[in-house]
Structures are given as C-alpha cells and as structure tokens.
Amino acid sequence: MTPEQPTRDVATLLEALPYIREFHGRTIVIKYGGAAMEDPALCEEFARDVVLLKYVGLNPIIVHGGGPEITGYMERLD
Question: Which SUPFAM superfamilies has this protein been placed in (predicted)?
Fold first, then answer.
C-alpha cells in the first residue's frame, strides 16, 4: 500500500456513499467476462469490489457473458 492509498480509498467511499444509500438492500446484477476474467489483477480487484458491495448492504449477482443481449437490455432500461 502506498502512502496515498488511504486518501484515495476515503475519496472513493465518499463519492460512492450516495449510491450506497440509494441501493442499500437492493439486488444488483453485474456482468462479468471478457478481458476482466483474463487479467489476474482485474480478477482480484473484481472479487474485492463484490465483497465490498455485499459488505455495504447490496446484494450482487454475477452473470457471465451475455454480451449483446445484456447490453441491449441495459440500454432499454436507461
């Protein structure tokens, strides 16, 4: 950990706090695949992020792939 890391972590949490409050207790779907699965460092970061989401009260569900179908559905939701 670098000396700057705690400051970045606090800034990230402060930025995320409104979203944590808004989505607390809700189920969220996360599409995971492609390059994110191939890079070991990204895999570890992804796992940490999922644990953090659960820890702050969200219910993450991970789906693999789905590419165009999931992307199209997400665009229709906006």
Answer: Carbamate kinase-like
